[in-house]
Amino acid sequence: MFAVHQTAVPATLARASAGRKIAIACLLALGCSNAAWATPILGAAQSFTVLGGSTVTNTGLTTVNGDVGVAPGTALTGFGSATLLGTLHSDDAAATLAHGDALAANNYLASLAFTRDLSGLDLGGMTLGAGIYRIASSAQLTGTLVLDAQNMANALFVFQIGTTLTTATAAAVNVINGSADTGVFFGVGTSAVLGAGSMFAGNIIANDSITLSAAASLLCGRALALNGAVTLDTNRVSNDCSAGGALGTTSLDYGSEGFAGIAAGQDLPEPASALLLPLGLAALAYGRRRRGA
Predict the structure, then answer these.
(1) Rounded to whole angstroms, how far apart are CA atoms 243 and 180?
(2) Edge-to-edge strand order for the sheet containing 165-167?
(3) Contacts of 226 by beta carbon, 8 Å cutoff, 6+ apart
(4) What secondary structure, in 3-state letters, does 215-278 show?
(5) What are the pLDDT tens digits along the chain (293 aa)?
(6) Backbone dihedral region for residue 171 (phi beyond 0: left; psi -120 to 50: alpha; all else: beta)
(7) CB of 9 closer than 8 Å to CB of 284
(8) CA 140 to CA 241: how far, in whole Å?
(9) 58 close to 83: Cβ distance less than 8 angstroms
(10) Cβ count within 10 A of residue 77
(11) Which residues pair with 88 in a beta bridge?
(12) Cα distance between residue 287 and residue 9, in whole Å
């Protein structure tokens, strides 16, 4: 039997992100259906538009819709000239949870079996349906990449990139026939650089750094650097697709999720919640022992 003190489960609940709190409550009540376990892939990172591991630096009149944070680093610089429609988080509880969930999401996405190998090909000029795409080393985007969700519910696009992601000047990612539940993710083994004037869509999760060159836009997605820096330069960035018009674009409204998708029925691991099941069972056993005392 597990030995659990009365304070153990509430303490775990306090550390977990909001979606995980529901899961814990379900475990303790033992009355939730499997549907209650449908989890946003990004967890607590969902509210963040920009998240750095070491630092986040801005130059110029950048506009960010959503939260900006850094953890475990603390440096947030240059935001006096930025318009921020969100909150700055420097190595606080929210940024720490977001970092842990972004790492868990990255590991989950990397574990998916790929459906097509695009190694050595330029992504520009391609039209792709939902799928898991592998690129063994570096990925290059010149021109426009079209992602056609084909009106599928929960259409998921995942690019598993071995090393770097680089877009040329004025390159674009265009998502068509999508919905609020469409997921678009670029998992980058090292670093990503969006070229000047690029119009990008989707969530970039890079192990090292992410750089948005001058006037590059990321209007439906996020820039999440797990270990290095995120560098901004007079950009427009939003984690809310429906905010695109307010940021000066004519992009279609795919809702407020920012192409974050959902992992239906998946229990995504994260540091705050990996032991929730045994804790829930332990709490139940403890309660029975208390009643029998």
Answers:
(1) 13
(2) 75-77, 55-59, 229-233, 210-212, 192-194, 165-167, 139-141
(3) 53, 99, 102, 103, 106, 205, 206, 207, 208
(4) CCEEEEEEEEECCCEEEEECCEEECCHHHCHHHCCCCCCCCCCCCECEECCCCCCCCCCCCHHH
(5) 222 222 233 333 333 454 444 443 433 333 333 333 356 899 999 999 999 999 999 999 999 999 999 999 999 999 999 999 999 999 999 999 999 999 999 999 999 999 999 999 999 999 999 999 999 999 999 999 999 999 998 899 999 999 999 999 999 999 999 988 999 999 999 999 999 999 999 999 999 999 999 999 999 999 999 999 999 999 999 999 887 655 655 456 688 889 998 764 444 444 333 334 444 444 444 445 555 55
(6) beta
(7) no
(8) 24
(9) no
(10) 11
(11) 68
(12) 12
- Residue listed under structure tokens 């439906």: 220
Q: Which of 2, 101, 108 is nearest to 42 (CA)?
A: 101
CB 258 within 8 A of CB 220: yes
What predicted TM-score, i.e. pTM, was given to this entire model? 0.79
Structure tokens, 74: 């603390």
In DSSP terms, 48 is beta-bridged to: 67
Site of tokens 């033992």:
30
**CB neighbours of 274 closer than 8 A, spacing ≥ 6?**
none
The answer to whether 44 and 99 are in contact (CB under 8 A) is no
Residues 93 and 224: their CA atoms lie apart, in Å, by: 17
Report CA 175 to chain centroid distance, whole Å.
17
**Residue 67 amino acid letter:** D
Asked if 136 and 119 count as a contact pair (C-beta separation under 8 A), the reply is yes
Q: Which two tokens stand for residue 32?
A: 């939730």
Counting beta carbons within 10 angstroms of the beta carbon of residue 290, is it exposed (0 to 12), middle (13 to 18) or buried (19 or more)?
exposed
What are the φ/ψ torsions at residue 198 (nearest 5 degrees)? -65, 150
Nearest to 258 by CA among 76, 40, 68, 105: 40
Sign for the CA dihedral angle at 268, 273, 274, 276 comes to negative
